[in-house]
Write a structure and sequence with these properties.
Helices cover 52% and strands 15% of the residues. Helix 8 crosses helix 12 and helix 11 runs antiparallel to helix 12. It starts with 11 loop residues before the first strand and ends with a helix. The protein is built from 14 helices and eight strands. A hairpin with a 2-residue loop joins strand 2 and strand 3. The chain is of the alpha/beta class. It has a five-stranded mixed beta sheet with strand order 6-5-4-7-8. Strands 1-3-2 form a three-stranded mixed beta sheet, covered by helices on one side. The structure holds zinc ion. Zinc ion (ZN) binds next to loops. Zinc ion binds next to loops.
Length: 401
């Protein structure tokens, strides 16, 4: 779809001439026969290209029917693109190198360069960028140059299945230079197909003139046999990530169980938040009466005559604590060396200590009954004995396996 330019766009005018004006057929000096106008985005702003088209003045020359475009045009943008190479590289680099999402690239393009592109246009440019990048990455001359100073190389192979039942993407990587050599999607990875990939890796290594010092994989049967055939005598080791993950399976199971236990103990966040919000709402309305205060229930409510701003800030702190605890409970990050349940226990412990510090400060400093009440409420909800039992319980459970 043609790009729609806003009516008030201010274009820089770039006039392009044909540099070599000798007719390719007869060598005669060519004449300008037409102009082609193009508009495109560059990082410096919108540009209107005026391309002067040439042809041979001799009607009988084959160079007469064919026009020649200025040589520079292609160095600014490929035909019919709405963006120049500079914007194209800007988009591609953000997507492929920094893994920024398309909507974010879209808004950044707009904010930083006032370039408006639809998300599907950006997706299409990214696709082209990937195709060019893949072609470039596998360019034998570039690769040879890249591996010039490398002695031995280390290869790895792994299959990634994005979704169950879909084809698996097999990737061969070289680890000393951290480069993906090639990848292929296989619907059913038979031993023969896997061996074909390993053989391809051998061809690459030979064409680079490099010795393969080591293979690394998760040691699926197909990998083991194929590598033994294609690379006799080359050691083949477990990938330590896979190895660790397999070894850690029972640990992670126990960890996940511990998480369930902790979540079961640390409850009532919403109730606390609702009470605070209700209290803040009540204090916002000017007619605070004892009735209202009592309606907000339990421990949070200080004396009805306490100054509203202070109660407000105490309430905000309670809400912040609730948000922090909720974040800790929902965090699923962490691998086998730092399992999520341990992270959760550590996070909750930090919150406990923080609340305890507040309580100690209250005891030492000025006494304000209303603000002293809430940390007690929060800690009382979950920090009582049960949690610490559970925490140490979970830790010892994991280590027992
Ligand atoms: Zn001619």
């Amino acid at each position: 779809m043609p790009y729609k330019w806003p009516a008030d766009t201010d274009y820089a005018l770039w006039e392009l001439d044909v540099l070599d004006r000798a007719c390719p057929a007869c060598g005669r000096m060519m004449h300008i026969c037409d102009h082609r106008y193009r508009r495109l985005h560059t990082l410096e702003g919108p540009v209107q290209l005026v391309c002067k088209l040439n042809h041979c003045p001799d009607r009988d020359c084959p160079g007469h029917a064919k026009t020649k475009s200025p040589e520079q045009e292609l160095t600014i943008a490929p035909p019919s693109w709405a963006i120049g190479w500079d914007v194209f590289c800007w988009i591609g680099h953000r997507r492929c190198s920094r893994h920024i999402s398309i909507p974010y690239i879209q808004s950044e393009l707009w904010d930083a360069h006032a370039i408006q592109l639809s998300d599907d246009a950006i997706a299409k440019y990214i696709q082209r960028y990937q195709a060019m990048l893949a072609a470039r990455q596998q360019d034998p001359a570039a690769l040879r140059q890249h591996y010039e100073s490398v002695g031995e190389i280390i290869l790895s192979i792994d299959g990634l299945q994005p979704e169950k039942g879909h084809e698996t993407l097999y990737v061969v990587r070289e680890l000393t230079q951290k480069r993906v050599w090639f990848a292929e999607a296989l619907i059913s990875a038979t031993a023969d197909e896997v061996q074909r990939l390993v053989a391809q890796a051998r061809e690459w290594a030979i064409s680079l003139g490099k010795t393969v010092g080591l293979w690394i994989s998760d040691k699926q049967d197909a990998f083991v046999t194929a590598i033994a055939v294609e690379f006799p005598g080359v050691p083949h080791r477990y990938c330590d990530n896979h190895f660790l993950r397999d070894v850690a399976k029972p640990v992670l199971e126990a960890d996940s169980h511990a998480k369930v236990q902790m979540r079961r103990k640390v409850r009532g966040l919403r109730k606390i938040e609702q009470a605070v919000l209700k209290q803040q709402g009540a204090e916002a309305s000017t007619s605070v009466t004892e009735d209202h205060a009592e309606a907000t229930v339990t421990v949070f409510v200080g004396p009805a005559n306490s100054p509203a701003p202070e109660a407000d800030s105490a309430g905000a702190v309670v809400l912040d604590y609730c948000a922090a605890v909720r974040g800790i409970l929902n965090d699923d990050q962490g691998g086998p060396l730092h399992p999520p349940g341990l992270r959760m226990a550590e996070g909750l412990q930090e919150v406990r200590e923080s609340i305890q510090r507040n309580l100690d400060a209250q005891k030492g400093g000025s006494q304000r009954s209303n603000s002293a009440a809430w940390p007690g409420a929060l800690t009382g909800d979950w920090s009582t004995s049960k949690l610490s039992e559970n925490q140490s319980g979970s830790t010892s459970r994991t280590s027992r396996r």
